[in-house]
Structures are given as C-alpha cells and as structure tokens.
Amino acid sequence: MNQASLYHRANEVQRHDAEQIIQEYVDKFEWRHDGMDCLLDVGTGSGDVLMDFVYPIMPKKFDRIVGSDISRKMIEFARKCYRDVKQCEFKVLDIGTEEKLPKDMKGAFDHVTSFYCLHWIQNQRQALQNIYDLLRPEGGDCLLVFLASNAVYDVCKLLSKSTNWSPYMQDVNRFISPLHHSNDAKWEFTQMLKETGFTQLHVEMRDKVYIYQNEEILKDNFKAICPFLERIPLSQHNDFLDDFVDTVTSLDLRRCDPNGKTHKFLSPYKLIVAYAKKPALVENLLSELIISAEEEEKKQENGVEKKNIK
User: Fold this and answer.
1) Eight-class DSSP state of 170
2) Are the beta carbons of 66 and 54 closer than 8 angstroms?
3) Rounded CA gap, 100 and 253, in Å?
4) pTM of this prediction?
5) In the chain, which ranges are E strands?
6) Tell me: the pLDDT tens digits for 2-51?
7) Contact, 215 vs 245, CB < 8 A?
8) pLDDT: is 220 or 275 the higher one?
C-alpha cells in the first residue's frame, strides 16, 4: 500500500468510480456564499483523484484543499507531483486515530471527501467521529465512498490459509472491510452516521463489476493495494501473484475471449456511497432543547396518568 508510483498508475478502478460519483454529487455540496471553501480529502493516496476530479469542481476563489493519508510515502509522492499547484497541500493523517486530531485541522473544513479509504479502517465509528470533528462547528458536509465487500477479500482469505503464505497473512482480517460480512451494510453504516450526529443522509449501496482486461493489469492493481507484499521476500513475489491469479480463477472470475488467447478477470464488489451533513452548532443546540422538552413533556404526561390510575 506504500508503493505510491505504482498506485498512481494502477488505480483505474478507484479513478473510474470516483470520477463518476463526484459528477453525480457535485450539485449536492453546500458551497459557501463567499466561495472561500476549505476541503479535506481523506485517504488521498498519490493525490491524483483529488487533483483530477475534486480540484476542478472547487469554487474559483476557494481557500484551500488538503489531501491527507496515513502513509508518509504517499504524501511525499503527492507533494512532489503537485508542488506547483496553488492553494493545495498534503498532510499525514490517520483518520482512524483515537488520539487528538491536529489543532490546525480540527474544525477547519467545510467539506470532507474520501474515496476508497474507509474500508481499511476497522473502527469506522471512530473514523466518522474524526470526520465530524474535522468539519467546522458552523457545519459542513462529506462525501464518503468505500468498499462494503469485494471478491478480492475472499481471495486473500483463501491465500492466508495456504502453507506458503499464511506466515505473512496471519492478520488478514485487519485488511478486510468491517462490512464485508454484514447482512445489511447500508443500514449499518447509516446508523453509524446518525449516531455520530450527521443529518440529511443519503446512503447508497451499489453492486458493481469491474473487468480487468488482462492478467498483468489485474496483478498491477493488486500489487498497488496489497499490504502483504512488503512482508514477503522479493524472490517470492511472482509466486505469490501467480497464486493470487490462480485463486481468482478458482472462484470462477476469469473469462476467456473466443480466441482462447486473452483472459479477462471479473471483480464484483459492493460500494457504499454516502453523503451527509454536519449541522451547525446552533442547530444542534436547538435539536437538543426540543428533544429535552419532548422528554420532559412525556414525563409529565406519565405522571398525570399515574395519578389518574390511583
């Protein structure tokens, strides 16, 4: 996951989905009246999705755009690639941290976007709380896109049971989306958003299939995101990738062209697309007062009913 240059050229699935979804949701963003918007991208990777698809939709006079990632190598790569872009910076940030957020980032953003990141975080409630806290107290919104499930998770589970690769994949579950085995991932994530405090939710579950046109493209894309390769001796990388392809084939995900010479590979996956808003602090206070008043009214009604019964 730290191979920034490889990820930069081999993340075609992520780019395809991000571009499509950004265009669908661009009119939902609540842009500031003064146009001085600040946007944070979480899990920005090599920065190409942020710069190619998010940067162009920003208001002309926006304040700043920040790409963040847990990987220092990714951030350093992005800084080099986009060092000449104005009003843009890249920072190391662990969105799943239970520690205090950086002071200069907490409550500093009008918008948060995230594409293909949150499935790496096992404690998604903590990640959502951090996203909520990164948005301004005056309110803001977020667009979050991540994998609920993916056939590659099943492939990794099978590889982790093999004699050759199990020593390197004992923590395989740490790299599988926490919603992969959920009976209702859309409902589960919606509840997490609500409990965090987000409102005006729009959550979708999209069933998708991506087709890799040949074996090399499949391998490159897997290498770009595979967390296990850096643990495996370099001399065994090709064997591991060959076993990966064989396992994909065993799950009936390979298709042959009529000539029988070219193999394409299917990658079925379920994608969560969620848009949500953080209400302004005043709205929160009013909401709490209303709830408190309603609860007090119910208590009084119950008291009256008990007296009448007596």
Assistant:
1) T
2) no
3) 44
4) 0.86
5) 38-42, 64-69, 88-92, 111-115, 140-150, 199-212, 254-256, 263-278
6) 466 667 666 788 999 999 999 999 999 999 999 999 999 999 999 999 99
7) yes
8) 275
